[in-house]
Specification:
It is built from seven helices and eight strands, in the order H-H-E-E-E-E-H-E-H-E-H-E-E-H-H. It is α/β, with parallel strands linked by helices and about 240 residues long. The chain has one domain: Glutaredoxin (3-Layer(aba) Sandwich), CATH 3.40.30.10. A five-stranded mixed β-sheet has the order 6-5-4-7-8. A three-stranded antiparallel β-sheet has the order 1-2-3, covered by helices on one side. Helix 6 runs antiparallel to helix 7. The N and C termini lie far apart (about 40 Å).
Amino acid sequence: MNDHRSSASGRARSGVPVVVVVLMASAAAGFAAYRLLGRPSSHHPVEVAQGPASPAPLGTVEAEVAPPTSPAPRVPERLPELRLPGVDGVVHGLGDWKGRPLLVNFWATWCEPCRREIPLLKKLRREHAADGLEIVGIAVDYPDEVRQYAATHGIDYPVLIGESGGLAAANAFGMDPVLPFSVFTDRSGTVVTLRVGELHRDEAELILDRIRDVDTGTLSVSTAREQISDGVRRLRRVQSAPK
């Protein structure tokens, strides 16, 4: 099992980096799907009450590699009501945090980009506490390993455990099981954007600032999506410019 996990992390590192605002299948998705589908059956299957799906992706897709045959994702307009056991042993639903903006992060202990995100997620939760932001991690992994990792690394936000139910949880967001990915919602539970790949601070701050504007009524959701898409494009251009 350890050899298999080492291979997983190594192959994730060698995958083509993907930069998107809205979900797009990547070259790494096939391996991630194999990794998740090969897991044993969970004792806690995910419960999903799926809301209506949007007929098209939210916003504009940006990616360094975009397979031409990839179908358009069906990202739900509203936060689906997933129910999964937490590291505290209690079954939680995403509705438990109703009325708060959410960043729902899908991750696993064996996923190196996922592990790199955790310090940022902890900081974002602390720095945006005044906005009511809650981070909810959904770990697609074995319960004992998730609990140990969360305790060892001081993860202070709620962590739910998908195990084999992670596939159904990812599908509820229109996603193939590629990790990591993060879903951002406003206080009303509207999915504003979905970010595939490792989350970086400048992108996260851009998205959260626009969501704050939505929550205060100074920006519509559609305008926020457009500004997020345009802003991420600008950030990518700056980061890729020769030094």
